[in-house]
Amino acid sequence: MKIAILTGGGDCPGMNAFVRSAVRSALHVLPDSRVFGVLDGWVGLLEPKYRPLTNIDTAGINRLGGTILGTMRAPELAHIRELQDRLVRNFLEAGFDALLVCGGNGSLRAASTLDRLLRENGTERSILFTPASIDNDVANTLGTALGFYSALTRSLEMMEWIRDTASAHRRVYLIGSMGRSSAYLPFYAGIASGAEYVIRPSERVNFEAIADMVEARDRDTRIIVSEAYPKSLESIRAILSDSLERRDSRHEIRTVDMGYFQRGGEATVADVIRANWIAFHMVQCIREQAGSGFFGAFHVGGPPNRVPLEDALKPSANHDDIPRQMIEMALALR
Asked: C or N: which end of the chain has fewer Cβ atoms within 10 Å?
């Protein structure tokens, strides 16, 4: 049996743990198998570029950030049929029996397209997918994406650094955060760090109420702003500064964007353990000839949530915004 592993979309912590577990699980659970890494994500299947992987190749990478296989986006796969056909052709010519994918929404669509075209050609193979996204915006009703808790941990570190400076100088900090439209990353970072407010992308913000909150604070105020919110950090700073000046309230407002640093660094234990758990279950499904599927998990200890790939793409599989009860909890904690 010939198994391929692909890390698609953006890199994030946990991908290397997934690769390591997939390789080692396959070589032990399926002793007659050969395992190959697809280089540079979906581009590696289009060109094509692969390399064999052994236990030695995956030594010491469990917590390593990024991905040893590399990853490049290929958005044109979503709408160019000639590229989709080439994907199928290269996959079959390589003789792969299964493909294990770890990636974001674009990779999920590509995996589902590959699976569908293979079945239409009467050459069904096992296409197995698990989400990896620091934004946690891939079928998040079915599980938490790999990389999310690592990015959250990195965010908390930076929030504490910012708190020290904000408190010493009695400043207000507007802090930019990655997270896309789901806003899971900034919202959870706000809860865990005790930030005074998190501005979500779809929110109708009452800036006068935020100015009231700033006035009521004694030393420091940290407000996290989701990257998908339509106003820039500087625009928000200008609005709040104007409101506070009209009140004759002196609060220095600074801006900082922590988005550049949230993606990198070592994977946390939560992401490493779940990556190992999911990849192991994928290999077991290959052994049992269970077919293609999406694998999501909130924790380790029970079987991952496994659904057809097309079901993971349905709007009902993903929260577009933070669940209302989580928002109510955050408001109660202010």
From this structure: C
